[in-house]
Amino acid sequence: MAIDKIVIVGGGTAGWMAAAALSRLRAGRDVAITLVESEMIGTVGVGEATIPPFLDFNKLLEVDEREMLSAVQGSFKLGIQFVNWGKIGDSYIHPFGNYGYQMGGMSFHHTWHKFKATGDKRPIQVFNLETMAAYFGRFARTEDYAREDLPPVNYAYHLDAGRYARFLRGYAEKRGVVRLEGKVNDVAIDGESGFVTSITLEDGTQIAGDLFIDCSGFRGLLIEQALKTGYEDWTNYLPCDRAVALPCEREDGSGPLPYTRATAHKAGWQWQVPLQHRNGNGHVYCSQFMSDDEALDILVNNIAGKPGADPNFLRFTTGRRKKFWNKNVVALGLSAGFMEPLESTSIHLINTGINKLIALLSLDGITQTQEDAFNRLTGKEYARIRDFLILHYNTTARNDSAFWNYCRTMAVPESLTEKTDLFRLNGQIFREDDELFTETSWAAVMMGQGIMMNGHNPMADCLNQPSTRQELDAIEQSIRYVVQHMPSHGDYLKKYCPAP
Ligand code: FAD
After folding, report:
1. Nearest in space to 78 (alpha carbons), one of 141, 149, 165, 120
2. Low-confidence spans in the chain with pLDDT less than 50
3. What is the DSSP letter of 177?
4. Is 44 in the pocket of ligand 1 (CB under 6 A)?
5. Is there an atom of ligand 1 within 6 Å of 258 CB?
6. Residue ranges per structural domain of the chain
């Protein structure tokens, strides 16, 4: 059956990202795209931090970065600072760029370890541009400092999720996406094929479709409520199941930090996402170990500034849909699954879901092969991200609460145990299944959590010591020089993408 009508259910970040991306497909093709959303139900209203591959989504849409950042009051993000995770008082940054660069075909941390073993006292962080700029609250893009001896600066954005959905809505509607307001009350399924044929709104409007994209949030209106796809629950690995969000104004006149902060508390952790006009704040926690009241108290006592809204309490179950693509329904966003926002991976998964859908889509019809490929690839992506998130909880030394005692001693996937064992042995990190996180990401979090390398790749011992030391010195000095000459992040934003 040819695909003439695509119906998107839901107008949160997932729905409008899908609508905007698919609206580009309409050029030269006779395909109708309809998006249905309900203002009464609303969106989840959080989801403000992204990671670097998100920049490619702008490229796909051919959106101007300045225009987008102005419209959403966004800021730049160089990484994530983790506070109190390994133990209380610890802090480290998971940066977006690499430590140094490959020497002798090996990741930089091997070379760094080799020199550390021979008395070099410099922490690995001084060899990373994003970490150093973040610590000094500075920002510039590669184009601004134009030095050939340094890799490009890797960054992502902090966005106001509501403004971002509105921005994308304008984009998609301009390109022919039709938006319908209304609550979906009924879903019709063909008895023979099991395909969804239409949805019906509360006012009786019926919308027929060939391909349905379920962006209805946690409720999974089509993928779960209609098709009963099933859910794989990962609460045993990632036990947090609640969040309370409370944005606040920055009253002290300080500019936005160029990084997200994740501060661990007694039974969860708190996020701080700095936008141009406010800080997004929230506390993710585990209801088995903490009440809603206590979670809100902790959050209120740990934010600087006046709350700009009422607290927004959210419930979730970490895990994933058993199939992301089922029959003629593709789930994107929260309807596909949820892993807590510790590494800002949800919008990323929407982005990669859209990329895969576009790559696999044929307007001639839907085949089992497309469905299987989408599900296999997405499943692997989810599993690799899940392991990376578990790493933060399980490799803690904290023993100050029942929650941390659980996380420290819980059983973890074998794939993760192998990763940490090999890193301890000699710093080896094998990336698998085209996984998202780089060797620097794994090394930064493992070392930040307190896992130390007991050795390094033996090839590091074969590097020419004097010339390698000179290279290390040059990297460190170039980074210091560039960071010293970068403007503050706040000044950069005022000049580059001020509020309209
Ligand atoms: P929603 O925003 O819930 O949208 C669902 C849409 O479906 C709405 O438009 C709603 O009206 C519509 N709908 C539902 N039912 C019906 C119906 N019956 N009829 C009509 N319409 C209907 N992600 C990140 O990448 N970075 C972060 O920092 C981050 N932080 C987060 C913090 C928390 C606490 C949580 C819970 C999530 C966070 N996320 C983050 C995830 C992010 O919020 C979501 O991935 C993103 O907002 C996409 O949500 P969504 O569009 O799938 O769902």
Report:
1. 141
2. none
3. P
4. yes
5. no
6. 5-48+160-233+317-366, 97-152+387-489, 242-313
